[in-house]
Write a structure and sequence with these properties.
Length: about 400
């Protein structure tokens, strides 16, 4: 795998963390693709002034800057051997559409994190642009918890996962790509056998909508003072744990059913939520005895609050938060659509989709079927012409 130029897409928290980390482990060229709004101009101006971006990790500092920043894909993507998309899932498709015409035939492009169904959108767009040779990959989660402190100047990396799963298509490139990515991201990466595992093992689609549902169902109009805003992970109660476990069990039931229908597909990496938390946060969970304690005593989750928005002197639950607008249409709904293809019932997930759809002003589900008018904006396989389970398990 010959990688001389890497292009990073987007100017969010994750891209800020990635630039100095990669710079410290990669001597080739790093480009930054910022098509969104005025970001390219803004970033370029600030980095020219400050010279480099600093990431703080624990007591350590790492520095870096992109070699080239651009608003147009032609300027920063056409020479790239590897394109990384550390973006919210709702930006994947529009970003891919801009990049696809300029991709080198032998390029590799991946989403970090992939969320669910990334391959359906990516492979369709690449095919439409006659770039079928381009390879794709996805990571199960973002490796870091990170927040921009000053745009283009400083980012804090608050936590790092012990290991992150990754799948690629074609599957044969997985190991070589992992060798390269582990080095430049300074990360342990676990190979996953297929992209379907990424979708079924996307834990964000359980944790984020599940906890939001548990915290705010029936309390939609609750108001908080700054000091009473609930903690998100440390606020997980016994009742919320039951919901999260039921969601995780439904996904494990779906996984089992897919394996019965297709004995060749390897889904052994799809874990229960509790097993995943222990696997990913081995060293930061003080009490691993229950699912609830895995949330409440995880130091990587310490002090993070539920998403709220300020209104006058109060704070209200923020129903436009990423935890809902990303993890439902690019997560839970993809699971539900696969469950429909496999004829598996998911009553707990259905109820959560139904409630959250109302919160975010969308119509996805009627009864227990995904037929709402806004389903066209989600990443279900049916939207990409795949209507049989056999069509999605090959990736
Ligand atoms: P972010 O909100 O900081 O990213 C925003 C950036 O994405 C923008 O600056 C822009 O460059 C790009 N963007 C947003 N909307 C766009 C659009 N419509 N078109 C094109 N570009 C657009 O997000 P983040 O915190 O960097 O997170 C990236 C991904 O990682 C998300 O999937 C997020 O859920 C996940 N994640 C983040 C964290 C974290 O600690 N930041 C932790 C776990 C997972």
């Amino acid at each position: 795998m010959n990688i001389d130029t890497i292009t990073i897409c987007g100017g969010g928290n994750a891209s800020h963390a990635m630039i100095p980390i990669i710079r410290n482990h990669f001597s080739g060229k790093i480009n930054l693709f910022l098509p969104f709004g005025d970001e390219a101009h803004h970033f370029q101006k600030l980095i020219n002034d400050k010279k480099f971006l600093t990431a703080t990790i624990g007591g350590k500092k790492v520095y870096g800057r992109p070699d080239k920043v651009g608003k147009l894909a032609k300027a920063v993507c056409k020479e790239a051997d590897l394109i990384l998309m550390p973006l919210p899932a709702f930006a994947h498709e529009q970003t891919l559409l801009q990049i696809a015409p300029f991709l080198k035939e032998e390029a590799t492009i991946g989403a970090i994190p992939a969320r669910s169904g990334f391959e359906y959108a990516a492979l369709k767009i690449l095919k439409e642009h006659k770039k079928e040779k381009v390879k794709i990959f996805g990571m199960q989660t973002l490796p870091w918890t990170c927040r921009i402190k000053e745009y283009a100047i400083r980012v804090d990396i608050l936590g790092k996962k012990g290991s992150v799963g990754m799948a690629a298509f074609p599957h044969e490139i997985t190991f070589e790509l992992i060798t390269f990515l582990s080095r430049i991201l300074d990360l342990k990466i676990e190979p996953l056998p297929n992209m379907l595992t990424l979708t079924l093992a996307n834990v964000g689609q359980i944790i984020h909508p599940g906890i939001m549902y548990g915290l705010f169902k029936g309390k939609e109009h609750i108001t908080y003072q700054k000091e009473t805003i609930p903690l998100f992970y440390q606020g997980v109660t016994e009742e919320i744990t039951k919901t999260l476990k039921a969601m995780s069990d439904e996904i494990l039931g779906l996984t089992k059913r897919i394996k019965i229908l297709n004995s060749d597909v390897n889904l052994e990496h799809v874990m229960s939520l509790k097993d995943w938390l222990i696997y990913s946060y081995e060293d930061s969970i003080a009490d691993k005895s229950t699912l609830q304690s895995c949330f409440n005593t995880n130091s990587a989750y310490q002090g993070l609050h539920a998403p709220v928005k300020k209104e006058n002197d109060f704070y209200l639950p923020d129903f436009q938060a990423r935890y809902l607008t990303e993890d439902v249409p690019f997560g839970l709904i993809v699971i539900k659509s696969i469950a429909q293809l496999a004829e598996v019932k998911t009553p707990v997930i259905d109820g959560i989709i139904s409630t959250i759809s109302q919160w975010i002003g969308k119509e996805y589900i009627k009864g227990d079927i995904l037929v709402g008018k806004d389903i066209r904006d989600t990443r279900i396989p049916q939207n990409y012409g795949m209507t049989h389970l056999e069509e999605i398990i090959v990736y």
